[in-house]
Amino acid sequence: MRANTWAGRNKVEVRDVPDPKILNNRDAIVRITSTAICGSDLHLVDGYVPTMQDGDILGHEFMGEVIEVGSGVPGDKLRVGDRVVVPFPIACGACGACAAELYSCCENTNPNAGISEKMFGHPTAGIFGYSHLTGGFAGGQAQYARVPFADVGPLKIESDLTDEQVLFLSDILPTGYMGAEMCDIQPSDVVAVWGAGPVGQFAMDSARVLGAAKVIAIDKEPYRLQMAERAGHIPVNFDEVDVRSTLLELTGGRGPDKCIDAVGMEATHGSAHIAAYDRVKQAVRSETERPHALRQAIMSCRSGGVVSVIGVYGGLMDKFPTGAWMNRSLTLRTGQCHVQRYMKPLLQRIERGEIDPTRIITHTLPLDQAEHGFDIFKNKQDNCEKIVLKP
Amino acid sequence: MSLGLGVAQLAAPDTVRRISGVDDSATSRTVVPLVGARELVHAAGLLTSRRKNVWAWTRVAGDAMDLTALAMAIAHRDGHRRRRLLAVTGAIAGITALDLLTAVRATQTSKTGSAPTARSARREREGGSMDLTATTTIRRPASEVYAFWRDLQNLPTFMAHLEQVRTTGDRTSHWSASAPFGSDVEWDAEITEETPGEKIAWRSTGDAKVPNAGTVRFVPAPDGVSTEVHVVLVYDIPGGAVGKAVAKYFGEEPHQQLDDDLRRFKQVLETGEVVRSDGAPWGKRARKEFPQRPAQPLSDAELEKGADA
Ligand SMILES: [Zn+2]
Ligand SMILES: [Zn+2]
Q: Residues B257-275: pLDDT tens digits?
């Protein structure tokens, strides 16, 4: 089959690789009809993650048709011919984490748990196409994929919704939604979202669906801000204005009630001296992350508010504003999305027309053009927001 | 912590030089990316190595290098540049102190702490006994977890080094372990103590090449659903050639192997089998987490050759 693979730092390559086969009884093989490139794929391609190997198949957002099931998959759960969306965390459904619906922390699905445990204290779940640190599972930017625990994760699509309407249930829609849900939104709330990439856009839509009074989008790319504005959110360009004072102005001096960091470890900043400050901090080795977005969210949030972190962080951070966090009674909540928990309720919201996931798609490319897709997405060329690949 | 700086120094050495006040000289053009490369090696070492204390000490050495380079730079600068350099040097001196503290702590831990690596590795070479402990929580009732373990023939399904356990009587069994022991490493064992649903203790009998004993306790977890499994294994490591083979067999980190065995035990009881990924497709046959094969499906030929390919 054809598959998009990691071929060294800043290099992806579509190659011919063997077709997947059943390895465990509860596996299924899916013929992929649509897959997507995600912002977190860029951390892998950048070479930020130390456990990538030449030939690793990328991709953790995919859907398709079941063409084979293992003997351990009950027929009432999944059959050949079913159309499914596959969640990115691989979850066993039987461990303590799964019982608590903390699927991205599943205790059984990462065969390299020992390594993950050393980095994070406790291991995290296996993830498709996301380095050997998260298990070394082949990803879904390919014609076919092996899906372990196929009786637990995949969501059957039984209506005639298009791939584009349901594909993002695999990751970015539930991730954005979880970011808003963790905010415990009240009808009077003003919610500010750092980052107007795909996850940020869905966090904004979700905040509105959950009843926020106002939603503010913070980014520096005009096309992303326009996309948020078209969806009814208030744009703030951090290249043009001071974010904190603009937020205070928009909220009568209170600050946003709830803040969502949809940026993560590779944040950029509009102000040259703050960017320089963090560079020097990096230069004296006091942190791995670039925490502008998180720091700004904590400093801007109203006293007693919630800061919800769904942007990906990977290492260690110093100079975290503990004083602001503690003295102003802020709540900090975070997590890799527990996708399985949100798929069905979000599918219903899509069916009812409350959320339109297709609004962020700017490019649809054949799988063979994955390399070009990574290029324009990474460099924010051609107003690229979200790319769907067709194997 | 090193990772970010390494990336910055490799990706934008000019910016790093400008910010820290180091001149754009030919020397600094060469030195800054080299320092960046060193940081990446440190990051990789700290992330993957089991000997963190060694890596922590190499960081101290690296800091000393930075300080020396900066001191040389200060000697040749004046005014504004010199002030900036002095500030950066002060910060790095602080970091050096921290690295030094970390290194000292890491060394102390591996000498006196409970970390099994250094201690057991030393004893393996000399001969002597090695005891390993590990624990996990399984979301199954204690009776079920106990019953699975009590059928000793199940142990090789999740314990990497066991080839086969055959029960020969009510309390006796015959065990065989795989290479590098060679197929001739076999021994008899007997259960010395058992309390159904709570505890099993066993030990090797006769003239086993590597006399060993073990205890496993099954304790109900506070959630009322799960069972805590506590394992203690004791090996008498002989000296000489067999001792060397045993040491090699256990690798650098025998504790890690036992942890991984228990992880597979949990997988088997909670999910029905050992979980396989494309990077590590051989289940319990994968004795080491690294090196792995690429995360892509196996070819028919690879599948046929199996784990020993
Ligand atoms: Zn994603
Ligand atoms: Zn689980």
A: 889 999 999 999 999 999 9
3-class state of residue B308 by DSSP: helix
Q: How big is the CA angle at A196 (ends A391 and A242), to the nearest 5 degrees?
A: 155
Report how far residue B281's alpha carbon sits from residue A24's, in angstroms, rounded to the nearest whole number.
Answer: 10
Is A306 in a helix, a strand, or coil? strand
B91 to chain A, any CB pair closer than 8 A? The answer is yes
Closest CA to B211 of B220, B219, B202: B202
- Short-list A155, A198, A149, A125, CA closest to A64: A155
ipTM of the complex: 0.91
Hey, is the C-beta of B305 within 8 angstroms of any chain A C-beta?
A: no
Q: Which residues contact B76 (CB under 8 A, 6 or more apart)?
A: B23
What pTM did the predictor assign? 0.81
Mean per-residue pLDDT for B277-292?
74
For chain A, say whether B300 makes contact (Cβ under 8 Å).
yes
Cα B30 to Cα B79: distance, rounded to the nearest angstrom: 24
Please indicate whether, in this complex, the C-beta atoms of B292 and A136 are within 8 angstroms of each other: yes
Which of B277, B286, B296 has the CB atom closest to A3's CB atom?
B296
C-alpha–C-alpha distance, residues A247 and A256, integer Å: 7
User: What average pLDDT does range B187-214 have in this prediction?
Assistant: 94
CA–centroid distance for A238 within its chain: 22
Ligand 1 centre distance from Cα of residue A61 (Å):
6
CB A84 within 8 A of CB A64: yes
User: Chain B contact for A138, CB < 8 A?
Assistant: yes
Q: A326 in contact with B at a CB cutoff of 8 Å?
A: no
Nearest residue in chain B measured CA to CA from A53: B294
Q: B58 at the A interface (CB within 8 A)?
A: no
Distance from CA of A212 to the nearest CA of B (A): 36
Omega before B141 within 30 of 0, i.e. cis: no
Q: Which of chain B's residues have a Cβ under 8 Å away from the Cβ of A21?
A: 297-298, 303
The ligand with the least distance to the CA atom of A99 is: 2
What secondary structure does DSSP assign to B261-279, as a single string?
Answer: HHHHHHHHHHHSS----SS
Question: Is A109 in contact with B139 (Cβ distance < 8 A)?
Answer: no
The total number of residues shown for chain B amounts to 309
Q: Is A270 left (phi over 0), alpha (psi -120 to 50) or beta?
A: alpha
3-state secondary structure of A51: coil
pLDDT digits (tens, 9 = 90+) for A285-332: 555 567 789 999 999 999 999 999 999 888 787 778 999 999 999 999
Helix (H) or strand (E) holding A320: none
Q: What one-letter code names the amino acid at B53?
A: N
